[in-house]
Design brief:
It contains 17 helices and 10 strands. It is an alpha/beta fold. Keywords: ATP-binding, DNA-binding, Nucleotide-binding, Transcription, Transcription regulation.
Length: 383
């Protein structure tokens, strides 16, 4: 059961939250700490722009991303930066709730609705009234619960399990998932009409491996949160190992590794030896081949395939003969003698271009006036 301001037995309700996967992150009038989205990379700047764009509206937002990327933080940021910031923010993990209990958790139940329902209970929608409801791991929701959710979104009202009264609500719904919901729709595991109701404004949270420039900032933040009064620094060899790691668990895994390393290090300095072995042995990022080397290899292969024919090689490469001559000469001047020395063939003059060529009267009449004057002068000198 979610924790509310009037709860008298926090321990019992915490046990209920662990069982149902529901939690009330903030409540009306509470001073919740502002969400910090750490990072200065291009993906993080884009993410913040999207949050600012959508926060002031009341549109339904779908947040996609791998596990550990911080999808709930993004949902909380949308809540805090919008007009519902003073209202409650309720998060429910659909994957943590047994299928038989999903409807009761979302919509509540009346007394005697099922075995063990000894009292009436408000569900997540009622708890989030005038605030925001996060449906985390939405892709794990059963088809029957999806049907009830669709009706609640369409009617903006819910009916408790075992009840007969419609309860109107004012709730902003944000959902999050690591699944491809479009693929789930095509496979028949997710309702298409519900997809169109929920995925109005999609936001993609990129994995940590695609924003490596933020790793140092995240490390500083994690150290500040976890060092517990100790002054801990990270040595260069440890930074290199962390930068080369693939981060399958994303930011959540980074915090786990930092916490473990703080406990393992001596002298207030985290070295590569303090990191888990699977991080230390992670392969380094693949080297990038210089563009000039790729170009040289392509020219060499094209000439070999065409029997050193410049015309055919240039056509194969999609460049002009002059460009091919120039690039080969440039590579050879730089000391690369693996490429053959291409000799330009002398240009064969047409008969009309010969020094003593006579121009026929018909061609002279078709030529421009300036050219006709030049041709007549040439003929006179020849005569």
């Amino acid at each position: 059961m979610a924790r509310t301001q009037t709860d008298s037995d926090p321990g019992a309700h915490e046990a209920d939250e662990a069982r149902t996967g529901t939690r009330l992150v903030s409540s009306s009038g509470s001073a919740e700490q502002p969400v910090m989205l750490i990072g200065e990379s291009a993906p993080m700047r884009s993410l913040n722009r999207q949050i600012e764009r959508v926060a002031r509206s009341d549109v339904t937002v779908a947040i996609f991303g791998e596990s550990g990327t911080g999808k709930e933080l993004v949902a909380r940021a949308i809540h805090q930066r919008g007009p519902r910031a003073a209202g409650p923010f309720v998060a429910i993990n659909c994957a943590a709730i047994p299928e038989a209990l999903q409807e009761a958790e979302l919509f509540g139940h009346e007394r005697g609705a099922f075995t063990g329902a000894t009292h009436a209970r408000a569900g997540c929608f009622e708890q989030a009234n005038h605030g925001t409801l996060l449906l985390d791991e939405l892709g794990e929701m059963s088809m029957s619960t999806q049907t009830c959710l669709l009706r609640a979104l369409q009617q903006r009202a819910i009916r408790r399990v075992g009840g007969s009264t419609e309860i109107p609500l004012d709730v902003r719904v944000v959902c999050a998932t690591q699944r491809d919901l479009r693929a789930e729709v095509e496979s028949g595991r997710f309702r298409e009409d519900l997809y169109f109701r929920l995925v109005v404004f999609p936001i993609e949270v990129v994995p940590l491996r695609d924003r490596r420039e933020d790793i140092a900032l995240l490390l500083d933040h994690a150290l500040g949160v976890l060092e517990g009064g100790r002054r801990v620094r990270v040595r260069r060899d440890a930074l290199d190992a962390l930068d080369a790691y693939s981060w399958p668990g994303n930011v959540r895994e980074l915090f786990n590794i930092v916490h473990r390393s703080i406990l393992s290090c001596e002298g207030g300095e985290i070295t590569a030896a303090d990191l888990p072995e699977y991080v230390r042995r992670a392969p380094a990022p693949a080297a990038v081949t210089p563009l000039a080397e790729i170009e040289r290899a392509a020219i060499e292969r094209a000439l070999a395939a065409c029997g050193q024919s410049v015309t055919k090689a240039a056509e194969m490469l999609g460049i002009s003969r002059a460009t091919l001559y120039r690039r080969v000469a440039q590579f050879r001047a730089e000391g690369d003698h693996a490429l053959p020395s291409l000799q330009r063939r002398p240009r064969v003059l047409r008969p009309s271009e010969a020094p003593n060529a006579q121009v026929s009267p018909s061609r002279l009449r078709r030529a421009p006036a300036s050219r006709r004057r030049g041709c007549r002068a040439t003929q006179q000198r020849t005569d």
